[in-house]
Amino acid sequence: MRVLVTGAGGFLGTHICQYFGSRGHAIAALGRFAADEAVAERYPGLELLLGMTLPDPAFARALDAFRPEVVVHCAASALVADSVKRPYRDFRRSVDVCAYVLHTLHARVPDCAFVLLSSASVYGNPQTLPTSEQAPCTPASPYGYHKWLSELVTEEYRTLFGMRTAVLRIFSAYGERLGRQVVYDLCRKMTGPDSDVRVFGTGHESRDFVHAHDVAQAVLRVVSPAADAAVYNVATGVETTIVTLAETLAKLLRCEKPIVFTGEELPGYPINWRADISRLSALGYRPEVTLEDGLAAYCRWFLASKQPQKS
């Protein structure tokens, strides 16, 4: 396949490019890239690397030049806290950009499949676990609302214009090169100078953690001919409490500091998550990275990234 990835310089974008490129697919990577980007390692199969921030007229020219069969849309805002502080900016970076990409695709390559990376944040605090795709959407943050609105725009182009689309509601994704969110924050505190590890919440909050490798696998599954649904949960189907996550990381990092939960809730964040992944599993999806193996790999990356760079 010829696969174009927006937001290809970001965490999930790099993993998706690497996953598809290493399997022989041609890759076009669009996004913001660091000056020292490891192009050969992160983008095997690369035919086009283009720095841009969407919306950008260069996107249409990239479509004309590369002629993708699949577009994986990773470009969007990524932080709940920032969306609470600056909701309009988050809207523009999420909903407006998604609509622009779909509009340009429909005009230039209407037969191209479109995959939106959405989020389980559209569910807010779900009433039932495990949460299926039929659960009501009740977002608890601007970030969640804007993911939901992006889903509705995607549905518009699927329903009215016949575009082939799929929405992936990703639960708690983690993996190497992720420099934010709970796994990173715990690693940073456990290896930092403070005498204890202070964590928001009670520790009984839970997440359904899924490694970036399995997010990329999910993309491959939903662009197969067997895929016929519009929305898919992407997770492992396993609920892990934050206290269990913290204890596992402490062992891996040989951290003996006391872990202190503040009891303070963060606005916009859910309390408990566990996904029903039966719809995606029907396409042959099976999580390939266990939480234990994924966290061990993450800790190795984190510790290596803290070392001084050789000149």
Overview of the molecule:
The chain has a domain at 2-174 and 210-237 and 274-288: Rossmann fold (3-Layer(aba) Sandwich), CATH 3.40.50. The longest helix has 22 residues, at 87-108. The mean pLDDT is 94. The strands form 4 sheets. The protein has a 7-stranded parallel β-sheet with strand order 3-2-1-4-5-6-11, with helices on both faces. The protein has a two-stranded parallel ribbon with strand order 7-10. Strands 8-13 form a two-stranded parallel sheet. The chain is built from 11 helices and 13 strands. Helix 1 (11-21) packs across helix 8, helix 5 (87-108) runs parallel beside helix 6 and helix 9 packs across helix 11. It has helices at 11-21, 39-42, 58-66, 80-85, 87-108, 142-161, 181-190, 212-222, 242-253, 278-281, 291-305, and strands spanning 2-6, 26-31, 46-51, 70-73, 113-119, 165-170, 172-174, 197-199, 206-207, 209-211, 231-234, 240-241, 259-261. Helix 1 links the parallel strand 1 (2-6) and strand 2. With 311 residues, the chain is an alpha/beta fold.
What are the SSEs and their pairings?
Blueprint: E1 2-6, H1 11-21, E2 26-31, H2 39-42, E3 46-51, H3 58-66, E4 70-73, H4 80-85, H5 87-108, E5 113-119, H6 142-161, E6 165-170, E7 172-174, H7 181-190, E8 197-199, E9 206-207, E10 209-211, H8 212-222, E11 231-234, E12 240-241, H9 242-253, E13 259-261, H10 278-281, H11 291-305
Parallel strand pairs: 1-2, 1-4, 2-3, 4-5, 5-6, 6-11, 7-10, 8-13
Antiparallel strand pairs: 9-12
Helix pairs in contact: 1-8, 3-5, 5-6, 7-9, 9-11
